[in-house]
Amino acid sequence: MSEQRGVPDSVSSLPVRAILKELGLQGKVSTYQMAKKWDNLKRRYKDLKYPPVGMESVADGASSWPWFHLMNEAMEGRLASSAPLLTPVTQDDDQHPDPAPRHRLRAAPAPPPAPPASHPSSSDYAPDAFGDGAEQNQRSSETCDGPLGGLEREWEMVERERAALEREREMVERDRAALERERAAVQAERLWLDRERVAVERDRAMVEQDRAALGREREVLDQRALMLNSVGHAGHLNALM
C-alpha cells in the first residue's frame, strides 16, 4: 500500500478526511490513532449495514448510531465529492481565495510549502496535518474532549456489541449442536423400537406355531385314549362271557 509522508492511504483518502472534518478531529489525533479509529468506524458500519445471518435484528440499531448516515455517504463515495465538506472557508481564505480548492487533495505526493508564520491556517488538509506533527497531535489528543470523547464511547459500545454478537453466535452454535445430538438420539431410539417390533412379531409367530403343534398333539392323544378305552371295554365284555 502506498503512503504519503508516512500516512496510510486509508487515512489520507478523501472520505476519511471528510469524516474527520465532520467529527471535528482534524489535527487533534495522531496518524496511528486516526487509522485505528477509521477501521473501527468501518467495522461498525459494516456490522450494521450487513449483519450476520440470524442477527438481522441488530441492523435496527443503525438508526440509533449517530454516524451511520455519515459513514454511508462516505463509503458510497458521495461525501468525498462534496467540496464544501473538505474545504471550509476561513478568514484567510476570504482575503486570499484559493483559485482551485478542490485540487488540493489531488496534489502530488510532495508536501506543499509550510504556511508563513504570520498567517497560520488550520483548514489545510495536506498530509502534513497527519504526518510530521504526530507527537504534537498526540499531546493535543490528551487534552481534547467533546466529539473525541463521544467517539471513544461509541467505539467502546462497538466492541461490547461485537463481543455480545460473538457470544450469541457461540450460543446458537451450541444450541444447534445440541439439537443435532438430540435428533441423532431420537433416530437411534426409533431404529431400536423398529428392531424390537420385528422381534415381537417373530416371537408371536413362534407362539402361534407352538400352539398349533400342541393342538395337533392333543388330538393324537385324544384319539389314543379313545382307542384304549374301546379296547379295554371289549376285553371286559369278553371276560364276562
Structure overview:
With 241 residues, the chain is mainly α. The protein has a domain at 1-87 and 129-201. It has 8 helices and 2 strands, in the order ββαααααααα. Strands 1-2 form a two-stranded antiparallel sheet. α2 packs antiparallel against α4. The protein is rod-shaped, with a radius of gyration of 45 Å. The termini are far apart. Residues 87-152 are annotated as: Disordered. One of its GO terms (cellular component) is cytoskeleton. Residues 119-129 have a biased composition (Low complexity). Residues 109-118 have a biased composition (Pro residues).
Explain briefly what this protein structure is.
This protein is an all-alpha fold and 241 residues long. 64% of the residues lie in helices and 2% in strands. The chain has 8 helices and 2 strands; from the N terminus they run E-E-H-H-H-H-H-H-H-H.
Task: From the structure above, extract its key features.
241 residues; rod-shaped; two-stranded antiparallel ribbon; 64% helix; mainly alpha
Shape: rod-shaped
Low-pLDDT runs of 5+ residues are 1-9, 81-111, 116-134
N/C terminus separation: 136 Å
Arithmetic mean pLDDT: 70
Q: How many helices?
A: 8
Mind describing the biggest β-sheet? 2 strands, antiparallel
The H-and-E topology, N to C, reads as EEHHHHHHHH
Category from helices, strands and their pairing:
mainly alpha
| Total count of strands | 2
Strand order of the largest sheet: 1-2
Range of helix content: 55-70%
**Quaternary structure type:** single chain
Rg over alpha carbons: 45 Å
Percent strand equals under 5%
